[in-house]
Design goal:
306 residues; alpha/beta; Arc Repressor Mutant, subunit A; Rossmann fold; five-stranded parallel β-sheet; 5 strands
């Protein structure tokens, strides 16, 4: 059990005292720091008694604070696992698995999707959609390395319905130009997967310093950006390869786009038609008629006509 289920357990608690709420707020916002705490320091930082901390840990199902901290440390260990260590582990698992790799991978993806659906905080998810839909400022998306493709996918979808949406990267030398006019009215959607890119941290720091809101879509509550995020959506990403799975996080980004679309009170047809006109002008996509003419059947028809 890692940090994700721990926070899921917290959300399932029906009744919380004011002191327990303080502990929940601390654990939710400072998961990455909790591995360095103890009962005394946690009580001091939240302003509750040590007895309250002990009772709350028991309420979560742990025998002691050390048990909780051990789970958080395990999550941190997985986060900092090197690619060579991951290769050794995953190669051994694949060698011991059955021969049907396709089914194995699809079942893993289904498991990730089910876990993501069960654990994502709907309140945070819908709040993120509402902020994106506000259109008060600019919306920026960023991600680097394997996260860039996901950020680009989200940008392409959201730009069709949300004006003033921009994708940061991948040209690092141009990043300062894009960050020059960031204000507190803007929002950053940062796709942040392990191994975590330093450029994303620097970009998020710039938005935070400007007072802008940050939506962090990540794979761990213990990521280096956890403390800067206004809203954090943690998506299960365990895979069978040295790379973590992309499917669940892609599904969440797609769902976020759908949530914004549902909230939108403006008809996007004019914007979509303008985009289609530009795509045609710049010859962005293959023309259907041209494809039919170039197909084997089209070539045969042309020769027959001649």
């Amino acid at each position: 059990m890692t940090t994700d289920p721990i926070l899921t357990q917290i959300r399932l608690l029906k009744k919380l005292t004011s002191s327990e709420r303080k502990l929940v707020d601390f654990l939710s916002s400072n998961a990455s720091r909790t591995v360095f705490e103890n009962v005394t320091s946690l009580a001091k930082k939240t302003g509750v008694s040590k007895a309250t901390v002990v009772r709350f840990i028991a309420k979560l199902g742990y025998g002691s604070f050390s048990d909780l901290r051990r789970e958080l440390q395990e999550d941190a260990r997985l986060m900092f696992e090197s690619l060579s260590q991951r290769y050794t582990t995953k190669k051994r698992e694949l060698e011991n698995a059955n021969d049907d790799i396709l089914s194995l991978n699809i079942n893993n993806i289904i498991s990730n999707l089910q876990h993501t659906n069960a654990t994502i905080d709907r309140k945070s998810f819908h709040l993120a959609a509402e902020i994106i839909q506000e259109k008060n400022g600019n919306l920026y998306a960023c991600g680097f390395r394997t996260s860039y493709a996901l950020a680009q996918m989200f940008h392409i979808m959201i730009k069709r319905i949300r004006p003033r949406s921009f994708l940061i990267g991948p040209q690092i030398t141009m990043i300062p130009d894009m960050l020059l006019d960031v204000t507190g009215e803007d929002m950053l959607v940062a796709v942040f997967r392990h191994p975590y890119a330093r450029q994303t941290v620097r970009i998020a720091k710039r938005f935070s310093d400007a007072g802008a809101r940050i939506l962090l879509v990540t794979d761990s509550y213990c990521s280096p950006l956890a403390d800067l995020a206004t809203i954090q959506i943690v998506v299960t990403a365990e895979g069978l390869s040295i790379f973590r799975s992309f499917t669940a996080i892609a599904a969440v980004l797609e769902a976020l786009h759908l949530a914004v679309l549902r909230l939108s009170d403006q008809n996007p047809n004019e914007r979509l038609e303008a985009a289609a006109k530009l795509f045609k002008e710049f010859d962005t996509y293959c023309d259907n008629q041209r494809n039919r003419d170039a197909s084997p059947i089209g070539v045969l028809k042309k020769h027959a006509a001649e």
